[in-house]
Design brief:
- By secondary structure, this protein is of the alpha/beta class.
- The chain has two domains: 28-56 and 70-80 and 171-255, P-loop containing nucleotide triphosphate hydrolases (Rossmann fold, 3-Layer(aba) Sandwich), CATH 3.40.50.300; 91-169, no CATH class.
- Helices cover 41% and strands 24% of the residues.
- It has ten helices and ten strands.
- The chain has helices at 43-50, 73-78, 96-105, 112-117, 120-139, 155-167, 185-202, 213-219, 237-242, 244-254, and strands at 5-14, 17-27, 32-36, 58-63, 66-67, 81-84, 173-177, 205-209, 222-227, 230-235.
- The strands form two sheets. Strands 6-7-8-3-9-10 form a six-stranded mixed sheet, sandwiched between helices. A four-stranded antiparallel sheet has the order 2-1-4-5, with helices on one face.
- Helix 7 (185-202) links the parallel strand 7 (173-177) and strand 8 (205-209).
- Helix 3 packs across helix 5 and helix 3 (96-105) runs parallel beside helix 6.
- The N and C termini lie far apart (45 Å).
- It binds adenosine-5'-triphosphate.
- Residues 5-253 form the ABC transporter domain.
- It comes from Phytoactinopolyspora halotolerans.
- This is ABC transporter ATP-binding protein.
- GO terms for molecular function: ATP binding; ATP hydrolysis activity.
Length: 255
Amino acid sequence: MQPFLHVADLSLRFGGTTAIRDVGFELDEGSLLAIIGPNGAGKTSIFNCLSGVYRPQQGSIRFRGTDLRGLRPDAIARLGVARMFQNIELFDNLTVLDNLMLGRHRHLRYSTLSALLYDRRARRAEVANRRVIEDIIDFLQIQAIRRSMVGMLPYGLKKRVELGRALAMEPALLLLDEPVAGMNAEETEDMARFILDVRSELGVTMIMIEHEMGLVMDIADEVLVLDFGERIAHGPPAQVQRDPAVIKAYLGEAS
Ligand SMILES: Nc1ncnc2c1ncn2[C@@H]1O[C@H](COP(=O)(O)OP(=O)(O)OP(=O)(O)O)[C@@H](O)[C@H]1O
């Protein structure tokens, strides 16, 4: 059986800078992989390659059998890869509901004519879209703020809506970019619970970049550790935590 995601020999350079060097990993469907590493290790570059923002010079990225290399971000999104950004990508002066609806529409193929005529098919699609959004609102327990302007919400709730925006695409693979950065302990705990529910109840496979080591150790199935663009360890959290190369990379950063 082909792996859900298979990344092999991935390399990305910017002029003289090597952001990623020969990185490879596999991901099983339904699992949660954390990518960790010191600043500048290449974590964001991996996400940008997976979502089509950067074009790696070398290697392959096979997602459910399709090579993503060379595909545009919108094409990759349509294949079922969504991203929750670290910097919230929501419209502050729109409601939670409108933001979620936009999150859905932005990535769906549109027929302008049918939207104009508002024919039966478009109406049916609209009803189906609405149902997906209502399910997400229930799932994330944000009924009480559905009509609130996003700009008025506290940070933790904004991040929850940002997660909802990514889920609105009904992704098969979700990329989480530091989902708990800037959160207090309670918000972090809530987000951790939602991430675990996304995996177990919605069956979404996830890759998460995260600096918060407690969270990584608690919820990740596997951890990929990068340093200076190279893979230095990959395995279950407990094993990676004991790895001498990982300890050295982190102590090196602290000193
Ligand atoms: N668009 C770009 N142009 C030039 N260099 C880049 C670009 N994007 C990333 N790099 C370089 O690639 C290397 C890896 O950067 P990347 O942002 O992937 O690291 P990171 O692990 O996500 O770091 P951080 O934890 O600080 O976000 C760095 O040296 C960075 O300066």
